[in-house]
Amino acid sequence: MLVDKAPHQLKLAFALWIRDAVRLAIKKKFGIELPLRTITDYLKRAEASPRKSRQGWPRSKTRRN
Fold first, then answer.
1. How far apart are CA 5 and CA 45, in angstroms?
2. What is the C-alpha to C-alpha distance for residues 24 and 11, in angstroms, rounded to an integer?
3. 41: in domain
4. Is residue 39 part of a domain?
5. What positions does the domain Winged helix-turn helix occupy (predicted)?
6. CA distance 5 to 21
């Protein structure tokens, strides 16, 4: 799931797979909440780091100052 999809494709309000996005995806899919420290450990073991999604993040048409 994390490799094939970007967070926004799973209706999550994140552009990258950061700890909070991974945590929320796990909660939605499996119904369990994991501590952020556990998510951090899992991501380190998997040698994962936040990066741009291949599909790109849909940009807002309004500009923020």
1. 20
2. 11
3. yes
4. yes
5. 14-54
6. 12
Q: HSE, CB side, 13 Å, CA atoms: give it for residue 2.
A: 19
In a domain, 5, yes or no: no
If one counts the domains in the chain, the total is 1
Q: Are 22 and 34 in contact (CB under 8 A)?
A: no
- Tell me: the pLDDT tens digits for 14-62? 888 888 888 999 999 999 999 999 998 888 888 776 655 555 555 545 5
Q: What is the pTM of this model?
A: 0.64
Contacts of 2 (CB under 8 A, 6+ apart): 17, 22, 25, 48
CA distance 43 to 65: 33
Domain limits for position 27 = 18-46
**Alpha-helical regions (H) of the chain:** 19-30, 36-45
